[in-house]
Amino acid sequence: MSVQTQEGNPSISGSVEKQSNHLGLMSFAHFLNDGSANYLPGILPAILLALHEPSAMAGVLMAALLIGQALQPFTGIWADRVGGRLIFIFGLMGSSIGGALLGFSHALWVLILFLFVIGIGNAMFHPQALAIVRSSVNQKRQGLGLSAFLVGGELGRGVFPMITSFIVVALGLANLWLLAIPTLLTVPFLLRYAPQLPAQTKKSRRIDWKKHAKPMWFLVSFASLRSLIIYGVVTFIPILWHARGGNLVVGASIITTLLVVGIVGNLLGGHLADRYGRRPLLIVSSVFSAVIVALLAVVSGPLLWLLAGLLGIALFASVPVTVLVGQDIFPENRSLGSGIALGLANGIGAMLVLVIGMFISSIGVTGILVVIGILGLVDTGIAIAMPKIMTEHHGSASAHS
């Protein structure tokens, strides 16, 4: 899909008020999707206990949840070809219904099956939704607009672990189905009011994979290590807290702090990248993330919540920037670019969490967090080495034409 076709689409563009309404609706859908798809860490200790599984299974379950996100490049190509809005709406339904069914998992294989459903739904939601949002905002404020959309997702990821932990403690795992109700009430509004993307035409430019290979490698490498940090922390911090004698709700609140305070990073990241450039933000974000993760491994008490909040700001400041970079690498297929920047990278990050989780019995959770911090420094090196063209703002122009 050409950039010009998307940004000139009359079904998307409109008055400032209409664009704001669209952005608000899309952000709420993002809140529901990411909340449903990411609350597992908050109740992971309870699920492992209910199924009589060891802590070492945490990495396996998180990988099962997140590996489906590696499908996002494919759902992105599909979304660009067919246009419309149904793909992201069905994705939202898949994430929500899959999340609602987790409480009915009577065996490990059933739980993994439901986690795959959530992952596939998540993979369907993001590429098309991200492309719609970028095409719905003023070109000069795309970073800020995309940040506002991402805030909805981060709120969901932050709030839902707390909500689900309360439900599990008060009502039991079987009542997680309650979380699907808001989505079922929202879908009719999305079907009526959500913006639509135009379908690709025969005149649309083909994807030049050879031309995009080098910048794509840098992008995927950086974003995959960032995903490893995010998913590693949200997976292993609650387990560390529980191992130290803490209760489920309080452990989940650490993750909630990281994700909710991370909203500040989302908003600042897009704005600062628009103003000062993408490369400085990526470098500073990765340096602070590496240092804070290493500190999380050794501190206790209130400092855990303070560091979790600072880590959220540092990590999520780079998310809108990498999405924009992905869309600029693939201006002819922005849904694909979004899918690579988020989905493929998240899938690889999930696999890395699985690999690192295998060593939990030998080096412990503290050792796992130290390793993750070291990999954060590797991420800094990747940001420094990125080609200049990747970190320049391209607007509606092709990044590589």
UniProtKB/TrEMBL annotation:
Gene3D superfamilies the record matches: MFS general substrate transporter like domains
Predominant place of localization: membrane
Organism domain of life: Bacteria
UniProt cross-references to InterPro entries, sorted A to Z: MFS, MFS_dom, MFS_trans_sf
The entry's keywords: Membrane, Transmembrane, Transmembrane helix, Transport
A molecular-function term among this protein's GO annotations: transmembrane transporter activity
Membrane topology, from the record: Multi-pass membrane protein
Protein name: Major facilitator superfamily (MFS) profile domain-containing protein
Species of provenance: Sulfoacidibacillus ferrooxidans
